[in-house]
Amino acid sequence: MTQSHSIQGPTCEHCALSRNCTEKAEQLANKQNNPVLTHKIYHKGDKLYCAGDAFNALYIVRSGSAKASISSMDAEEQIVDFCFPGDLVGTDGFAQLQHAQTVTFLETSSVCYISLHSVNALLANSEQGRQQLLGNMSRSLLMQQQQTMSYHCMTSAQRVAGFLLDLSARLAKRGLSSNQLTLSMTRIDIANYLGMAIETISRLLTTMQQQGLIQVQRRQVTLLDIPQLQALSRFEVEENDPLFMQSNTALLHANSYTSQAMIQ
């Protein structure tokens, strides 16, 4: 695990994210007003843990963001999730008591550390804690199933629209703006996660911008028409569909500067 600055963390009552994680339930289980978490700071490119590392804690993202990835036999990276403030990270270690994923920070971030001992106490003593943990693991499983389905059943346009809407929903859940997205991940990461070529990502973002659905300025994406994005994410576009053809015709005449700006 990457070494980082460590501070004994606050109790749940001092944590603005307690309603989004298991921290509050852990406090109820311990029945004491003692620090039970460790707050750690990481920087862009740091690893929270790597595949194969021993499972000895769960983590709650307090600020910043990270990507979770697995590696194929030939060491190809496949991103399986992005992690944002309030997300519980590390549940992949329960199965074999070692992590199956590698979590890499996309920007300067902080996490709350819950030791395995505290996790076991939480599970043994708190029904609320158990329900929160199981709910989190269930959501992770559903997200992976949806990602697998998107590879086989969804068009590229649907995947990109669904990705933007998912980020929007996750921000809204945390009381943040659902229209203004700051993409901490690169276009390469997005392409990897969605199983697409980066050129396809750039073309589709250009098309959506031309259609007035979004506005893109480097890493800043503004969702201008969420209902239409929702319709696009559900609509099964065929390659010979007039709208699809019209969009791609427009792409051929798109300003090359716009495309290059969005790849950066």
Automatic annotation (TrEMBL):
Domain Cyclic nucleotide-binding: from-to ranges: 37-90
Protein's recorded name: Helix-turn-helix domain-containing protein
Pfam families: cNMP_binding, HTH_Crp_2
Domain HTH crp-type: 154-227
Keywords: DNA-binding, Transcription, Transcription regulation
UniProt cross-references to PANTHER family, sorted A to Z: CRP FAMILY TRANSCRIPTIONAL REGULATORY PROTEIN (PTHR24567), FUMARATE AND NITRATE REDUCTION REGULATORY PROTEIN (PTHR24567:SF75)
Organism: Paraglaciecola mesophila
Database matches in InterPro entries: cNMP-bd_dom (IPR000595), cNMP-bd_dom_sf (IPR018490), Env_Response_Regulators (IPR050397), HTH_CRP (IPR012318), RmlC-like_jellyroll (IPR014710), Tscrpt_reg_HTH_Crp-type_CS (IPR018335), WH-like_DNA-bd_sf (IPR036388), WH_DNA-bd_sf (IPR036390)
